[in-house]
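Per reviewer request, we include the raw input and output of the structure prediction for the construct analysed in the revised manuscript.
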Amino acid sequence: MLEILAEARESSNVVYNDFLLFYKAGQQTVYGFVEGKDDPSFYQGFIEAILPDDWSCKLIQAGNKKKVLEVYSQMDWSRFPRNAI
C-alpha cells in the first residue's frame, strides 16, 4: 500500500489536482507550473511585475521538468484559458 501511495504522489495527476483546488473560473489570476521548491519565489516577482495591478499569480510546484510538461500536455484546453495558465 505504501508503494502505491508513493507512486501516486510522484504522479503529475497530483499536481493537476492541486491546480484544480486553486483554479477559479473568471478570477483575474494567472496560474503557472514550476519545477522546484525555490522556483515559485523566484518567478513570482517577474510575473507580477508585468501583470495589471488587479491580477494575481499562483505558481504550483510540480517537482521536475518532466512533470511540468506532463501537466501541460494533459490540460483540458477547452476548459481552461491558455493565456491564463
